[in-house]
Amino acid sequence: MDDLGGGEKYMVRIAQCLVRNHNVSIFWDRKKDLEELKERFQLNLSNIALTPNIFTKSTGLLKRLWESRKFDVIILLSDGSIPFLLSKKTFIHIQQPLPLRSLDIKTRFKISKINKFFCNSYYSKSYVDNSLSINSLVLYPPVEIKPKKIKKENIILHVGRFRVRDVVTGINDYKKQGIIVGAFKKMVKKDLKDWRLVLAISVKDNDRKIFNDFRKNAEDFPIEFLINKTNDELWDIYSKAKIYWHASGFGEDLTKYPEYAEHFGISTAEAMGAGAVPIVFNAGGQREIVVSGKNGFLWDSLGEMIEKTQLLISDQNLWKEMSQQAIKKARDFTGDRFCEKLHKILDL
After folding, report:
1. Which of 38, 65, 66 is nearest to 50 (CA)?
2. Where do runs of H (alpha helix) occur along the chain?
3. 142 three-class SS
4. H or E element that contains 279
5. Cα separations in angstroms, 343 against 22, 45, 47, 121, 178
6. Do 299 and 278 form a contact (C-beta atoms < 8 A)?
7. 164-219: per-residue pLDDT in tens?
């Protein structure tokens, strides 16, 4: 784990499932980072031990092998690289599409030593399986639904990290927040009244200057920014919002770069759980969450996104029906489902 976010939260959830009946350690060197993760997502890390990370580049193969043999099970969050370990069982979780590649004998041998691979969506799985010549399993991320009894307001919401330039994909405006702001401004200029856009986003210190310039672009419009809010604070705005917008992957060559699309869409599922109707870009894992025309809308163009938004704004009966269907669909990703399927995958 090298950048605190959805993947790290996913792995901590795995640890929380297993610590009920097993001794669990997390390979991590910087305790401060886990404390940040704990505070942001209100995670319970008690009874989970911290052990030196044997997967850093500075750790030699012999040391990694020696340390790994101490564990009955190792579950690794991987970017597609395959380690050779001596734990009794090894499982690999991959959260993003992998490019097609040729597998040399060494890689095939390492793959053969992995007990099981699992992904966060069928979208990710389709690329991972082709890349590694395997048949991985799908374990959707755990989604905690914590709506509050707050009156709905005329709010269009977006939740996501602000990335000046994504370190993995190398593209600017990875979450397409500039596109979202531009679309809303266009609606306001066309006489949209009594609605506001809220962007609940996390911003790193080194991105503050560019973020402040980005925020200036929204001045004089009913656009609000909520910065670095805790999970509990996010549920305040989830519960108030009527509509949820997401645009990752829009304008990108997803045939060549499938990783640019949303791999699953936890924030979409969370918003749906609070009754916000999703209007999201028609790509990636979003298709596994949103049934277009039933619990939200998938769109292929900005004009279509605006059109579907205006339809919900003008037809409150339609919005209410879709809101109820969104809540129902979000429940598919909640409860004990995650831990139950995890135990089946691990066969512990």
Report:
1. 38
2. 6-18, 31-41, 61-68, 105-112, 122-132, 177-189, 208-216, 231-240, 266-273, 302-314, 316-330, 337-346
3. coil
4. strand 277-281
5. 12, 19, 19, 18, 41
6. no
7. 655 455 556 778 999 999 999 999 999 999 999 999 998 888 888 888 988 998 99
* Those residues with Cβ within 8 angstroms of residue 214's Cβ, 6 or more apart along the chain or in another chain: 162, 177, 178, 181
pTM, rounded to two decimals: 0.90
Structure tokens given for 18: 């297993």
- Say how far residue 292 (Cα) sits from the centre of its chain: 20
297-299 β-sheet, strand order = 223-227, 196-202, 155-161, 243-246, 277-281, 297-299
Q: Are 90 and 112 in contact (CB under 8 A)?
A: no
Residue 77's φ and ψ, nearest 5 degrees, are: -85, 115
Domains, the chain, with CATH or none: 6-143+335-346 (3.40.50.2000), 155-332 (3.40.50.2000)
